[in-house]
Amino acid sequence: MRFRLAAILFCLIAVGEFALPSPAGPKVDADAWVKAKVDALVSAARAAYENDDALPAYKKVLNSIAVTIRRRKLAEDAGFARHYREFIDYVQTASLALRADHELGFEIPDKQYFEETRQYVQIPQFLMAPSFLRSVSRYETLDRAKAFLRQLNQSRQPSDQLILFSYTSRHLGTPDNDDSFERLLIVVPGNPEKWVQFGVTDPKARIRVRNVSVISAIPNSDGTFNTYFKDYFRTYRANGSISIKGRWELGYGDDNCARCHKSGVLPIFPEAGSVSQSEQPALEAVNQRFLSYGSPRFDKYLDQSKIGPGLGSATPQDRNRRFGEGFSESRVGKAMVCAGCHNTQRLGPLNWPMDRVVISSYIGGGLMPFGQELTDSERDELHRKLVDEYFAIDDGNPGILKSWLLGKLR
Q1: 122-176 pLDDT, tens per residue?
Q2: CA atoms 67, 72, 75, 76: torsion sign
Q3: Which among 148, 207, 281, 326 is placed 20 to 30 Å from 52, CA to CA?
């Protein structure tokens, strides 16, 4: 890892020595500059994927390129922008999340996003009942919270029934506590349909989990659906009362939503044995619901096409050149099928920025690729090779991200 980071730093220094060509200058100069920047960006992105400690270095590279594009007005030069369209679009879109008022990574400021989407991401009023909030906040009283919700279902129409179950997350803690994995998920039918998830304080733990997340889905007539996000934090007071307010409004900032939520709503793959037998039908129902929505979109707030193709989108010929003749027909090669489902027409591409914990746990845990029977060592190899072919910067055999950024996949 030290060697990798040192190599990245050397790359950054070398790139800094390039004099930026004028957009109207010789094409070869522009090509050399863009290629150097792409190599630096992809190398830094790979290091950040593999180790969170390298994330600041990646952000520095990305920001430097974005600043140069803006100051030199390269996006406004018709010839330059046309020739390097993917590079310009990617840097401008990916760098949005570096701005203090764009932590969500969307094209408008976070404040404006929450104002415009308030109607979609409000917590239903019945989930704000004081007795329910007290019960849902601790593992020991979670059954009482579920009883409250089931009582509500008795007065709701069949099509309006809440779907609920508790589970333990396999891989992700809550935004306020990386070590907390207990959840209660409630799917509230309607338009929008809301997935409301409460973080639940672990058994016997004294520090309360604060997070409540709302993800809303609105299906469109064209087979797509728009998805909207908001995190809330609970405040526990000494008198026993509990209030809820937006995490952003409380001054805790927010996260880049699309980094994890490539498919908009995420399917639920709980820790084995954490969902009771009686709640298994609810788990199956919510995952079927997810599949029924269509292809994810982020409304007018993010154009996913500007982030490019994702993991597993290389051709068999590309894989054989990279990993050896006939590799595409091996068990691991045949399992590199992420893009079969994770593309713009279906579940959204798994492109950078993405979360290593989510990707590696789904592959290593046997959940993805769906239907593939592989050994643990084969799954480790699968993950490594997917990462290699996505982030490779070899000039003679560039990976998916570099090839796309240089316009070679048009």
Answers
A1: 999 999 999 999 999 999 999 999 999 999 999 999 999 999 999 999 878 888 8
A2: positive
A3: 207
